[in-house]
Amino acid sequence: MRRYELTLFADYHQFYIQDEKADGDLSDAWNDAAVERLLAVAPGTVGIGTVRNVDVPVTISVLEQEPVLDADKFDHIVECSIAVESGTIVAAGCTDYFPDAARINIPKGSYRVRASFEGLDSVSSNGLAGNDYYHLQLWPAPMGPVQVRKQRV
Prior knowledge:
There is one protein chain. The chain is mainly beta. The protein has one helix and eleven strands.
């Protein structure tokens, strides 16, 4: 397992991971259903919705197999797939300068992405402070549908 700890600027209440060669355009993907599940998907790109519009803590773990689902620990859990054709994923806020964004080298192929959200109800009323945390886990898997594993209430 490899684990990366990042702080990403969640401008417009989102950040993303994408295959380095994907165009990263999520503009049509953020429909009402995507906003509710805090997850938007486009070819080679996954957008993660956030409850704050500032820097947020993010962990990305690259695993060899599907991890155990820890639904009790998290407020919200969603899964989707991403095809990584370049062997590099980029993690960034949607307004970050792409060449300076964090990069993670992984074997080419298809991956499942589990996004687990923690501390969503800890955010202050002005949205500036909070203990929200965003955990992404990736493992090799065939492409599959978006799944809400635990819906935030």
